[in-house]
Amino acid sequence: MNKIHQRRIVYVLLFSAGLALATGLILYALKQNINAFLTPSQITSAQVSTRAYFRLGGMVKKGSVQRDKTGLGVQFTVTDLKREQTVRYVGVLPDLFREGKGVIAEGTLDPQGIFVASRVLAKHDENYMPKNVYKAMRENAV
């Protein structure tokens, strides 16, 4: 093997090592941003750690929303129609948040088993319409 072949092999090895390092760093960065999506049934069956950050999804149980008398705190129950999970959140809820509607909450479980949400997202149905279109449809229907 002459010097040109040896130099090419070194370049290929260095390129491969750099590519492997870049891939490893990208996968490590993506791993930190991945949030699991669980339902109340999956939480009870999976023995979720209190340090795990994940998304809880389901429907807000009717009659379960309890707002703090002072402040922005709210407690409600999320259900998947099989199991229920109590959620505690301090902050402004989205406009679409309603009892009986879909919700996704991001957060962790506390030692008492209550889901402490850092963010709450309300889901809407697939028939979304802007306010002005909805208003015009209502006026024409009357």
Automatic annotation (TrEMBL):
Subcellular location: Cell inner membrane; Cell membrane
InterPro entries in alphabetical order: CcmE, CcmE-like_sf, NA-bd_OB-fold
Iron keyword on record: yes
Keywords for the protein's UniProt record, in alphabetical order: Cell inner membrane, Cell membrane, Cytochrome c-type biogenesis, Heme, Iron, Membrane, Metal-binding, Signal-anchor, Transmembrane, Transmembrane helix
Domain of life: Bacteria
Any one GO molecular function term: metal ion binding
GO biological process terms, semicolon-separated: cytochrome complex assembly; protein-heme linkage
A family per Pfam: CcmE
UniProt keyword annotation of Iron present: yes
Annotated binding of heme, by residue: H124, Y128
Gene Ontology annotations for the cellular component aspect, listed alphabetically: plasma membrane
Regions that span the bilayer: 9-30
Cytoplasmic side: 1-8
Membrane topology: Single-pass type II membrane protein
Gene3D superfamilies for this protein: Nucleic acid-binding proteins
SUPFAM superfamilies per UniProt: Heme chaperone CcmE (SSF82093)
Residue ranges annotated as Extracellular topological domain: 30-142
Family: Belongs to the CcmE/CycJ family.
PANTHER family, A to Z: CYTOCHROME C-TYPE BIOGENESIS PROTEIN CCME HOMOLOG, MITOCHONDRIAL
Function: Heme chaperone required for the biogenesis of c-type cytochromes. Transiently binds heme delivered by CcmC and transfers the heme to apo-cytochromes in a process facilitated by CcmF and CcmH.
HAMAP family given in the database record: CcmE
Protein name as catalogued: Cytochrome c-type biogenesis protein CcmE
Organism: Aquicella lusitana
